Amino acid sequence: MDRPRVAFVGPGTVGSALAVALSRAGYPVVAIAGRSPASVRALADRIAGAEALDRPQGAVDAADLVFVTVPDDAIRSVVEGLTWRTGSSAVHCSGAASIDLLDAAAAQGADVGSFHPLQTFASAEPAIEKLAGSRFAIEASDVALEARLTEMARAVGGRAITLRGSKGLYHASAVLASNALVTLLDAAASLWEDLGLTKAEGLNALLPLVRGTVSNLEATGLPRALTGPVARGDVGTIDRNLSALREHAPETAALYVELARRTIPIAEAKGSLSPEAAAVLRKRLEEASQDG
Ligand SMILES: NC(=O)c1ccc[n+]([C@@H]2O[C@H](COP(=O)([O-])OP(=O)(O)OC[C@H]3O[C@@H](n4cnc5c(N)ncnc54)[C@H](OP(=O)(O)O)[C@@H]3O)[C@@H](O)[C@H]2O)c1
After folding, report:
1. Closest CA to 134 of 115, 157, 152
2. Which domain holds residue 58?
3. Which of 131, 136, 277, 282 is the most exposed place for a label (fewest CB within 10 A)?
4. Is residue 169 part of a domain?
5. CA-CA distance, 269 to 259, in Å (whole number)?
6. For residue range 56-91, what is the model confidence (pLDDT) as tens digits?
7. Residue 170 falls within a domain, yes or no?
8. One domain, residues 65 and 145
9. Residue 1 domain-assigned (yes or no)
10. E strand or H helix at 117
11. Shared domain check, 35 and 179
12. Ligand 1: which of 8, 9, 35 to mutate, most ligand atoms within 8 Å of CB?
């Protein structure tokens, strides 16, 4: 497949990581443009053949495919401010927004797509390495662009997933798997402050457990990776957990009950919790939620 000339508008975390990774994979990254000249220059300096441009229009004119890697809320207005041509492609990297953010480019004849790395990036340098092994959710207005984006995902060491359903649903799944895990660990690590240790020490102690859980999920999948008191139908342990939470962290007790409720069908699917034990647990958790 021929490799399109690629440009980036928005040399932030994702734009920088993708530009470097695609260039390393042999794609001609021809132009970088953005808001702050220093970030544009810093990224262009890392990529042989890339020109640092002060006007995004120059990037659109120089490339076959333009990644608009600005924050989600700025994508529509940035794209509307540019002139697009038939045969070029405009692509954003948002996980939550659909390709309709690029309507202005489509109206002028460009193909439009989205290319979302299903990964969490705090800064560009580690992001370059994290792209490899990630899934990339792809939407495209036409099959040729879909094939191009699929090939790009493969070239940076990732794997493409073509989405057919709601992008909002897809992103909600990502938020639950990534951001909610952070929230959960915040709640779990905070409990260690009542155990004579700091929250940071609690987090450090919990991380090997998290890694073990992820490794079980990788090895056996759902529902088999589930362990713990709900999987065993151990009502006594759940009672002990709940009374300790009520005493030391009442704000976390309701979260525990809700998660335990959601765990029951997983345990049933695993086959480790009988329907009778599940009924006892449901009743106990219902009482606990009424007790507050
Ligand atoms: N970070 C993640 O974990 C992650 C993961 C997957 C997908 N994404 C998606 O990737 C895209 C970029 O996110 P990011 O995390 O890379 O953001 P970011 O690090 O904040 O970078 C955004 C870039 O866009 C530029 N910019 C901001 N507003 C602009 C405007 N109005 N006009 C022109 N340029 C503008 C910024 O310039 P300045 O430097 O001058 O501010 C910066 O270069 C988003 O669609 C996001 O949803 C992010």
Report:
1. 157
2. 6-164
3. 282
4. no
5. 16
6. 999 999 999 999 999 999 999 999 999 999 999 999
7. no
8. yes
9. no
10. strand 111-117
11. no
12. 35
- Same-domain status, 180 and 153: no
Q: Which one-letter amino acid corresponds to residue 198?
A: T
Residues 29-45 as b/e (b if ≥16 CB within 10 A, e otherwise) read bbbbbbeeeebbeebbe
Q: Return phi, psi of residue 92, to 5°.
A: -110, 170
- Cα 206 from Cα 221, distance rounded (Å): 21
Tell me the residue length of the chain. Answer: 292
CA distance 55 to 57: 5
Could you tell me the two tokens for 262?
């959601």
E strands in 145-275: 159-162
Residues 207, 226: one domain? Answer: yes
Positive or negative, the CA dihedral 280, 282, 283, 284 is: positive
In this prediction the pTM is 0.92
Specify the 3-state DSSP secondary structure of 55: coil
Q: Please identify, among 164, 199, 220, the residue that sits at the C-terminal boundary of a domain.
A: 164
How many other CB atoms are found less than 10 A from the CB of residue 173? Answer: 12
- In this structure, the residues whose C-beta lies within 6 A of any atom of ligand 1 are 10-15, 34-36, 39, 69-72, 74, 78, 92-95, 116-117, 119-121
